[in-house]
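Newbie here. two chains, one complex. Structure please?
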Amino acid sequence: MAKMSFENHIMKQFDDELEEIRTRLMEMGGKVEQQVQNAVRAISEADSKLAEEVIIEEQVVDEMEVDIDTACILIIARRQPAASDLRLVMMVTKAINDLERIGDEAKKIANHAILLVEEGGSSKGYPEIRHIGASVSKMLANALDAFARFDADAAMSTIEEDKQIDLDYKTALRELVTYMMEDPRSISRVINVLWVVRSLERIGDHTKNLCEQIIFVVKGKDIRHK
Amino acid sequence: MAKMSFENHIMKQFDDELEEIRTRLMEMGGKVEQQVQNAVRAISEADSKLAEEVIIEEQVVDEMEVDIDTACILIIARRQPAASDLRLVMMVTKAINDLERIGDEAKKIANHAILLVEEGGSSKGYPEIRHIGASVSKMLANALDAFARFDADAAMSTIEEDKQIDLDYKTALRELVTYMMEDPRSISRVINVLWVVRSLERIGDHTKNLCEQIIFVVKGKDIRHK
């Protein structure tokens, strides 16, 4: 019996460790979600200070990635997880990479926000940024929610949201080209807006990756590139 | 003695498995390198057929990623690697992700190549594409070479190459904006060129990630975001 409870204790510790990396991934996800929202708001409200915050905070996201990654490697080395436990740990190492890249795109958006505020001028393209920004934020929130509940169906329907984002992105691109042709002096400014919508589209792609990873953990099926 | 040789056999098999994922990563790297070169050549030589090939071949790269990833998870589950072996396997799971994204950017370049051929017109921006394309191809070749030799110093100096690529990218962007302002009718065309140089810059970033992973395997140090 003593041995049994020792093993239980070991198992309990292992469970706690798995739970901890899940919690930390959720924290990182929440942080990144905030970054995306703030970056979009910084443009919308011409708020350079908020943009600066996003840029500084990106370091925190980077550190979270490295810390969680190290924790994952330690768990694999010490606990030798198998089957769904191993899938979970491998999923987390990939998911944090996508989250970090979303943070990176948020930082790029914040950089463009500062340039747009400095340049001044029209807010052509801002409604497009707000619209796609809202869709992308919602998609990311849904993906994190699906991860928290290990809900493969929710992950699957969140993937579908990316299609509309891609369509809206393409429409926005056409509109931006029209703005440039109508007013060539605005080209440099509109190019900044162009990079922002591109970053938002990339965030949608990374969020889609997150959803695929959730499905991989829950179902054990790799649906990438399908 | 019988037991000993059995263990040796097991170890030998493990070594073979590690060697195999290394070989397959190198194959995938070679394939991706070719994709990048062909995508750039497709633009330079207005060769839609070559661009189509790049687009079709991207599937092969995607399959390589999924296969190698599955092999890595199997090795972890079966062999329970530790220390540098575990670092190698974890590195491979990340490296194939960067290689797949490089393949993805090559596909995007190929798509733009087709649009550029269809539209016809001037080859404004092509020298920039050729120049950055050559630098990025060289950087990728150097990174794969550093991986083949597990050479952390070579990986470190390859990372440095990305700085020049970023500078050339920024110069190219300024030139492209000038072209658009000089001839607003060319805007739609130049935007295609803009996406191509952006993709090339992204390939440089992914190649930098590869180098950081090589350093992580060899030195056991995580130098990301440093």
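Moderator note: The interface with chain B takes residues 59, 62-63, 65-66, 69-70, 73, 76-77, 80, 82-83, 86-87, 90, 93-94, 97, 173, 177, 180-181, 184-185, 187-188, 191, 194, 198, 222, 224-225 of chain A (CB under 8 Å). Confidence is low (pLDDT under 50) at residues 1-5 of chain A. Thread marked as resolved.
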